[in-house]
Amino acid sequence: MTQAIDFANADPTVRPQDDLFRHVNGTWLATAKIDPDQSSAGGFIDLRDRSEADVHALIEEQPLGDPTTDAGRIAALHASFMDEARVEELGAAPLAPIFQAIGAIDSPSALARHLGWSLRHGLSPLVALYEEVDPGDPTHYTAFLTQTGLGLPDESYYRLDEHAEIRAKYLAHLTRVFGLAGFEDASEQAAKVLDLETRIAAHHWDRVRLRDLKASYNPTAYGEVVAQSPGFDWEAYLEGAELPRDRFDVLVVSQPSFIAGIAPLVADAPLDAWRSWARWKAISALSGYLSSPFVDARFDFYEKTLSGNEEQRPRWKRGVSFVEAVVGEAVGQSYVARHFQSEKKEAMEKLVATLLEAYRDSITKLGWMTEETRAEALRKLSKFTPKIGYPTKWRDYSSLTVSADDLVGNVLAANSFELDWTLSRIGQPVDLTEWQMYPQTVNAYYHPLRNEIVFPAAILQPPFFNADADDAVNYGAIGAVIGHEIGHGFDDKGSTCDGDGKLRDWWQPADREAFEQLTSRLVGQYEGLEPEGVTGTTGVNGKLTLGENIGDLGGLGIAYDAWLLAGGQPDGEPIDGLTPAQRFFTGWAQAWRSKRRPEAAKVLLTTDPHSPSEFRCNQIVRNLDAFFDAFGVTEADALWLAPEDRVTIW
C-alpha cells in the first residue's frame, strides 16, 4: 500500500490536541518556499502546477493547421500568445482604434452604446449581463444584470481606512498605465478614474449581501428596468452590444439599488471622466496581451502589490491560461483522454453514494428539525446530481474564428463568441449535462440552482484522493470534500433552494429559526480570527465565510459518519503508529496543507468566502466529538471546546 500520509511534513513538537494543522504540516510550513510567481503553496497548488504542465504538453502537441478544428484553434490561440516578438512590435497599437471610439463619446447615450460594445468584447461594461438558471423556474435560463465597474478587489477598498495605502498605489498604477498609453495628462486622467470608481463603489452591494439569493432575485420587466434607471439609455446599450431587444422582456436585476444608483452617474458625471474611465477599462482588460511595459505594470500592482508575488508568471504559463480561458473544454477533452483513469470515477461514485447515505441518516435523526422540513430536506438530498471527472457532452466551438497572428483580435473575438453563446441560451431549457469547471481544474463545486455536485478529474489525486490509501485517509480528505459540496445544498445560501433548484422557502418557521441560531454560533467562532503572519486587518468575516464554514463542518462530520458506514473502525489496527480515527483526521489536515503570502491573505480576508486553511482545519475539528475521542483531547489542550459550545448542524 502506498504511504498515504507524508510524515516528513509533520512537526512532532506540536501536539495534535493543540494544533492539528501544524502538527500535520508544521515542518512543511516552516521550510516550504512559495514559488516567486505564486502567491501561495500547498496541495492545491501542487496539483494545479501538475495539471498546468500536463495541459501545456497537450497544447504544444497541436499542430498549426485547420483553424476550424478544435486542435487548430488551440494551436492558433497558443501561437498568437507565444509570438512575443509580434506583441512587442505592436506595443500599444491595438488600443488605438478603441481609444478613437472612446474619444468620440459625446453624450450619455453614446456612453451607454460604448458600454454595450464593452460588454460584447469583454471590457468592463459597468452593468454586466449574463445568463443563468432562473431561480424562479430552474427549467430554463434567464438574463441577469449585475454590478461591475471597479478596478480594486472590492467596494470596501474605496471606503475603509485600512485600504488607504492600496488606494494610493492604485492611483500611481493608473497614472503609470495612462502614461504608457501615450497620454500626457496621465495623472489627471488617473485622478478622474479613481474618483469615478469611488462613486460607483458607493452603490455596490458588499460581499455578505451578495450571498443573499432571495435579495438578488428580482425579475423585472424591461420597461420597469428602464423606468427605474432614468438617464441610462438601455436601447443604446443593447445596440452597442448587438443584442436583440426582443430577448429581454424580463431581466433579473441582481442589485436593484446599484442599477438605480449608477444611472444618474451616467447621465450627469462629466463625460471627460467617463472617457478616462473607459480608456482605463480598455487598457486593464487588454494589458495582459500587450507589450511588456503594460504586462509589467499590471504585474506590479495586481500581483506584486496585492498578492505579494515576486516574479511574473512565465509566458508559457500565461499562454496556457489564455488557451484554457477561450477553449477550455476542447483542452479538457484531450486532458481526460490522456490523464483520467475510469477506475477513479467508479471509486468516487461509491464514495459519493456513501456520503449521501450518511447525510440521509443524519437528517433523519436531527433533533432540531420538524417532520415537515425533514421530508423536504430528504427530498432535496434524493435529487442531488453528482458529476465526476468530466462532462458527457463537450462544448461546441465551431463558430469561433481565431488567428495565429492576432492576439488582441483573438481576445475580442473570444469574448464576442461567449456573449453570443450567452444570448443563445436565454429562454432555452437548461442543459443538465454542462459543467462550469474544466476537467483539468483542481477544485469542486455545488450549484444550488441545479442541485448538483461536481468533481473535476484533476482533483481526484493525492492529497485529496489516493486509490492506494486506506479508507480512513481518503474519507478524511476527498470524503470531506464530497461532504462539503453536498453540505452547500444545506448552507445559509443553498438551503433557500429546493431539490429542483427552485428558490423556495421549504422550511417551517421554527426550523429556520433553529438553523439560524446554530449558524450564528458558527459565525461567532470564526469572527475576527487572524491567520498567522497577517496584521492590520479585522480578521475573518464570520458572515462572509458562513456558507463555506457550514460546508466544512457538515462535510467533515458526515464524512466521518460515512467512513463508519463503509466499515471504518476508529480503534482498529494502527498504521504507522496512528489509529484509523487518527488517520482520518490526519488525512483532513493534510489536505489543507497550505501557506499564503501576507499580501494575498489580506485581500482574501476581504473578498474570499473561504476561511484561511489553518482555520478550515482546526476550527472544524473543535466541533466534532470524534476528534476529541481520537486524540484524547482534554480541557488542558488548546483545541478543547466545551461540549455545550460545539456546533452540529447537519
UniProtKB/TrEMBL annotation:
Q: Which UniProt keywords apply?
A: Hydrolase, Metal-binding, Metalloprotease, Protease, Zinc
Q: Which residues form the Peptidase M13 C-terminal domain?
A: 443-647
EC number assigned by the record? 3.4.24.-
Upper lineage is: Bacteria, Bacillati, Actinomycetota, Actinomycetes, Propionibacteriales
Enzyme type, top EC level: hydrolase
Q: Which organism is it from?
A: Tessaracoccus lacteus
> What GO molecular functions are on record for this protein?
hydrolase activity
Question: Transmembrane ranges?
Answer: none
User: Carries keyword Hydrolase?
Assistant: yes
Kindly provide the name given to this protein in its UniProt entry. M13-type metalloendopeptidase
